[in-house]
Write a structure and sequence with these properties.
Blueprint lengths: L4 E8 L4 H15 L6 E6 L6 E2 L9 E6 L5 H7 L3 E6 L13 H13 L9 E4 L2 H10 L4 E3 L15 H6 L5 E6 L8 H15 L3 E6 L6 H13 L7 E5 L3 H9 L3 E4 L8 H8 L4 E4 L4 H5 L4 E3 L4 H13 L1 H15 L4 H17 L1
Parallel strand pairs: 1-2, 1-4, 2-3, 4-5, 5-6, 6-7, 8-9, 8-11, 9-10, 11-12, 12-13
Length: about 350
């Protein structure tokens, strides 16, 4: 009888990188002869996953994707088979405290809850070396780095013609992709644009691509900041949610990806930028230096003036521009599906037989 390895997620959402990675793991496990399913507390309509209410304890092993506090944690502690976690990080609560007591409490609870698994799991994986070190500091003994599976072929998608034309009007496009939340420090992106527009070159826009509905108070503060700096909606473009084709179009028609984030657990847009040959300028905080690993242009200071000058240099200096792209292409190989699958084989052996 085939052995069973299941995955547990608090939520399984369409278009979510963690859910997409879990789906790839399930498919890979099935291709290796294992029985495997995904169980989640919340499942978006149309997705292939089972309600956690139906999860059985008869599996040989389980991986819990840990990104939120949930009842799955205690269930894992009581699970009788081999127990693994894949840790995706939880944002420190202090970033949310000025805007949402509820989110701050949830993050604090999650960071406390992960510690209850230290003595209860057989293998603790993390999607970045930064997150793996965090697990090690917490006391987990058997740890490993295991990046998110990204289907890099999806970025060959056709682009949106009308959007591409609107972005090709002669302005320099500085791109940011991600949730509009305080740890991303979108305010520093806006300040960087202000400095660039005033002191470097006026024909520039900031494209902020991502959902902006999670924290209305924070989103409103960003709009207020842009207005105080006399930046128009054409200067700072908040796109909200976009389709995959629109996302690819933004990447292809931008000149630089800029991140001023103070905390990242992995940062998928860095890998997307590498895949679409867009040079990265990023503040070296959290997992960013680990994900880039020498690629891109790393900032040591959040000073918007420094960031603006770096963007100009990366865009204008042809030799620097090409050197950055060459390094990013080399780094992209680390995130290839074949390499990560081979890595997963080793972790499976550790979990089942180690």
């Amino acid at each position: 009888m085939a052995r069973r390895i299941d995955q547990w997620l608090p939520a399984f959402h369409a278009g979510d990188a963690i859910g997409d990675s879990a789906a790839h793991i399930r498919g890979y496990l099935r291709s290796k002869g294992f029985e495997s399913d995904i169980y989640a507390l919340t499942v978006d309509e149309g997705l292939d996953a089972r309600s956690f209410d139906t999860a059985a304890d008869a599996a040989d092993a389980v991986f819990l994707h840990f990104a939120l506090p949930s009842p799955l944690t205690e269930r894992l502690r009581r699970f009788g088979g081999k127990r693994g976690i894949i840790y995706h990080n939880i944002t420190p609560p202090q970033f949310f405290e000025p805007y949402s007591e509820g989110l701050a409490r949830m993050c604090a609870a999650g960071r406390q809850e992960i510690t209850t698994l230290v003595e209860s799991v057989d293998l603790a994986l993390a999607d970045s070396e930064y997150n793996r070190i965090e697990l090690e500091v917490l006391g987990f003994r058997r740890t490993g780095e295991f990046p998110i599976f990204l289907d890099l072929s999806r970025y060959d998608a056709a682009e949106c013609g009308a959007l591409a034309r609107s972005l090709s009007d002669g302005r320099r496009n500085i791109l940011f992709v991600g949730r509009i939340v305080p740890n991303k420090r979108v305010e520093n992106l806006i300040k960087t644009l202000f400095y660039y527009k005033k002191f470097v070159a006026p024909a520039v826009r900031l494209l902020v691509v991502g959902r902006n509905t999670l924290l209305p108070a924070y989103s409103n503060s960003l709009a207020d900041l842009a207005a105080r700096l006399w930046l128009s909606p054409e200067d700072v473009v908040f796109t909200g949610h976009v389709t995959h084709e629109e996302l690819v179009t933004y990447y292809r028609h931008s000149h630089c990806f800029l991140s001023m984030s103070e905390h990242e657990g992995f940062c998928v847009p860095l890998v997307e930028s590498m895949r679409l040959d867009l040079p990265v300028v990023a503040l070296g905080r959290g997992a960013v230096p680990f994900t880039l690993d020498g690629a891109g242009f790393l900032l040591s200071s959040p000073d918007p003036a420094v960031a603006a000058e770096a963007v100009w240099q990366v865009c204008e200096d042809a030799s620097l521009h090409e050197a950055i792209l060459e390094n990013q292409r080399a780094r992209l190989e680390y995130f290839s599906t074949d390499r990560i699958e081979r890595q997963f084989d080793r972790y499976l052996e550790m979990l089942l037989h180690g």
